[in-house]
Amino acid sequence: MGLADLSGLAYPWDTLTPYAERARAHPRGVVDLSIGTPVDPTPAVVRDALAAASDAHGYPTTHGTPALREAVSAWFARRRGVPGLDPDAVLPTVGSKELVGLLPSLLRLGPGDVVVHPRTAYPTYDVGARLAGATPLATDDVDTWAGRDDVRLVWVNSPSNPTGRVLDAAHLARVVAAAREIGAVVASDECYAELAWTEPFTTTGVPSLLDPAVCGGSHDGLLVTYSLSKQSSMAGYRAAFVAGDAALVADLLATRKHLGMIVPAPVQAAMVAALSDDAHVAAQRDVYARRREVLVDALTGAGLVIDHSEAGLYLWTRPADEAAGDCWLTVSALADRGILVGPGAFYGTEGTGHVRVALTATDERVHEAAARLSGGLPLA
C-alpha cells in the first residue's frame, strides 16, 4: 500500500499572501497574528541542557532515553492527572505535526478505512487520512460514527486549534467507550493543555485522554500527542512525544526505527529539562495571559465577538453581525490596519465566519494591534 499523491492539494496559507503584503505595507509595520509561532526566548534551563548534551557523537535511540521517558511519565502524573504511565509507552517525535500527519499511515490504514477528526480543525488531520488513502470524516457528533466498523482512528483535539474549545472528561469518556466498541484507536492532540484561561479548567486542568476518569484506568487503544513548542517556546527544537497504549507505541517504535525517525540526542536532553521545570511554563503562561487580555479587550471593543477560546494560543473571533460573517472580509479589514490573522476557512466549512487571532506576538506588537483597533473595525 503506497502513500496517496497530495501534490495537487494546495497549501492553504499560500492564499493569505496578498493580505500579508497589504498588512506589511502599513506605515508602522505588520502585526502578524496569523501563525502561532512563539516569539519569546527559549528558557535558559532548556538551552543549558541542550548545550551540555551537544557532544552527541553517537546515534540516539528512537525510543528516547530512559531519562526522557521517565520525565514524560512524571510530567503526566504531576501536570495532567495521569498516574502510573509506563515509560515504555512513551515515544519522542520530531514535533507533533509529523505524528498527526503520519499516524494513519503508521497504523497501516488505507482504502476503506475511516479517520474521524473534529469538524473545525487543523487541516493536517484531514491530510494525514488522505495521505494514507483512508477517508476523513469531519464531525463532532459521536453518534455519527459510533457502531461503524469502518472507523479505525478517531482524533480529538482538546484544547482545540483553532477554536480553543476544551472537551470535558464526560465527552472524552464517551468517545473512548464508542471507539472501544468498534476497535478503533483514539488519538488526542493535547498540545495546548498547559494554557487554560477559563474555569473550571484553570483550577482543575484540561482533562487528558489518559486520565482515569476518562479511560477507566486503561490506556488500551489510546494515544496522546504533546508538544513543547508552546509551553516552553521550543518550536525550533521540534520536541514532542506520543504516549498511551504500550502495544501501539511499540508498533510505532518498530516502524520508526526502520525509517530513522529519531529525535536528536541534544533535543532529548533539552526535553528532560523542560518537562522537569514547571517554573518557566508558569512564567510563559503569565506572558500569554497578559497579551490575551489586551487582545480580548481590543477585539471586543472593535465590535468583534470571541467564541470558545477557553484555552490555547488563539482567539476564535467573528463579527457581531452574523450577516457580515465572511472570514475574508474580516481578514481584509484587519489587513488594512496592518494586522494579519488566520482565515477560519482554513479549518473547515464551520469556520468560514471566524478568524483565528494568535497570542504569539511581542508585547509591543500586541499593544500596537490594540491601538489600531481602537476606532472599531468597519467590515464593508
Automatic annotation (TrEMBL):
Domain of life where this protein originates: Bacteria
Residue stretches making up the Aminotransferase class I/classII large domain: 29-373
Keyword Iron-sulfur (UniProt): no
Organism expressing this protein natively: Cellulosimicrobium funkei
EC class: transferase
Family of the protein in this entry: Belongs to the class-I pyridoxal-phosphate-dependent aminotransferase family.
Protein name per UniProt: Aminotransferase
UniProt KW keywords: Aminotransferase, Transferase
PANTHER family, alphabetized: AMINO ACID AMINOTRANSFERASE, L-GLUTAMINE--4-(METHYLSULFANYL)-2-OXOBUTANOATE AMINOTRANSFERASE
UniProt cofactor(s): pyridoxal 5'-phosphate
InterPro entries for the chain: Aminotransferase_I/II_large (IPR004839), LL-DAP_aminotransferase (IPR050881), NHTrfase_class1_PyrdxlP-BS (IPR004838), OxyQ (IPR019880), PyrdxlP-dep_Trfase (IPR015424), PyrdxlP-dep_Trfase_major (IPR015421)
EC number(s) recorded for this UniProt protein: 2.6.1.-
GO molecular function: pyridoxal phosphate binding; transaminase activity
SUPFAM superfamilies: PLP-dependent transferases
